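Hey team,

Filing this mostly as a record. A colleague (T.K.) asked me to run one chain through the structure pipeline before their review meeting, and I want the input and output archived in the tracker in case anyone asks later how it was produced. No errors, nothing strange. Just documentation.

Input sequence:
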Amino acid sequence: MLNYKHIVIEGNIGAGKTTLANFIAQEFNTSLLLEEFEENDFLKEFYKTNDFVLHAEVQFILDRSKQLFQFHNQKHSKIVTDYIPSKSLIFSKMNLSNKDFELVEQLVNSLFKTLPTPDLMIYLDRPVSSLKENIKKRGRSYESGISMDYLKQVEDAYTNFLKQEQVFPVLKIDANEIDLTNPSLLKQQLSNLLSTKFEPRVKNIALKSLV
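Output structure:
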């Protein structure tokens, strides 16, 4: 029995967030909310030229706001999602000037303040070299220019985010321990994980110990 009703999966670009969210939704019969970003043309321009970063973040916020409010207007007994709404602040803090970040922060606080807060985050930790390989495998042309340096910056930004005081548990997992070729074992590990009550802080979890 799951001890959490609103689970968010987070991590760097290419960490495997969507794959794990899909697995949990299917195996534990939860509602699934996936980030929509294919239509963010500003993001594609940013990856190509490093321009339009403010435009990209604002577009993300507006798109997420619409998606989230439509989703939460429906009834869900349990939810798993592959992003936290406030992730715009993580990327904006890294990419924007202080003035532009303040604008984004105000927009996020205004639009998302009434949304329900997750009661658990699973953070997927994966080496930058492995992230690059995953990005290449999924074949999104606009991601081809993402550099190792940028992925390291994103990793550092998430590290700083995780150092902040958390209002819900954050379970940090080595993504390489997630074995999708053995779904029955993975389901058992996740069942043990998600039926355990954790304190609202960051905790490193070894999946191999959950059997």
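Quick notes for T.K.: The first strand starts at residue 6 and ends at 11. Residues 43 and 56 are 5 Å apart (CA to CA).
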